[in-house]
């Protein structure tokens, strides 16, 4: 017979055995054998049962006291500490194990927050420093209108970088907020992707990248049109950025297994096997990013938005042969 590990089981077992023992004692000691000193034996029996119950309850309260004492010492600075002095396999042990898992999740959340703040500061520091430098240089002496225009153009470019970064951060905060709820509007995904194909065609002209679109009609899902458009556009923008002149980007929207399948395939530089697991991480830029400007937030935002719509996004890539990003979303 396996030992009872559950505190609830132990208490129930103690309760039942106590009832049976007391009943049996009265039956045999009083009615059958009429034992002498039965009152003394009964008192000893009650003391024994009470002590057994006391030890069971004490074990419960000791475990809870240890856990409570440990919880009081935990702060944001020592989340790596764990409850290690509770090794029982009962409910108290399960509670300690769950608490340790909670500490692990909190530790990871704090690490991500600190990294996020550091990354944001880094992303804003460079354009702000460049902007300030340009303004200071422009003010050192009198300059011609053309020189002032050049400085203002550079300042505007830096300002656009800051604006883009802040917009990306706000989008990422929205998509990852626990309280964020996607609007349950009916979105005509065919129209959304058709518009993105037109935008991509214009973006491709500047780099001499050909854009092809294949969009099936009447594909609809529930969600936010604005957010989905942003998610898809981020993927397409990335494809065009990393595709050299003369290359191509193919955008398609089809139905497959009660899902909408959005696919973007390019003939760009490709993504290394080492980089592929990280491309959806915030501020991550691959080893082959080169001089291509970007904040490293685009695909993070896309993944968060797609996830908020109960969808999936995955990448397939070969160096020198291009990259394919595939998104699946549940149909309406």
UniProtKB/TrEMBL annotation:
Alphabetical list of SMART domains matching this protein: HAMP, HATPase_c, HisKA
GO terms for MF: phosphorelay sensor kinase activity
Main location: membrane
Histidine kinase domain boundaries: 119-332
SUPFAM superfamilies in UniProt: ATPase domain of HSP90 chaperone/DNA topoisomerase II/histidine kinase, HAMP domain-like, Homodimeric domain of signal transducing histidine kinase
Top EC class, one word: transferase
Record field: catalytic activity: ATP + protein L-histidine = ADP + protein N-phospho-L-histidine
Domain HAMP residue range list: 58-111
Swiss-Prot/TrEMBL keywords: Kinase, Membrane, Phosphoprotein, Transferase, Transmembrane, Transmembrane helix, Two-component regulatory system
Positions of transmembrane segments: 12-34, 40-57
Gene Ontology CC terms: plasma membrane
The enzyme's E.C. designation: 2.7.13.3
Protein name (record): histidine kinase
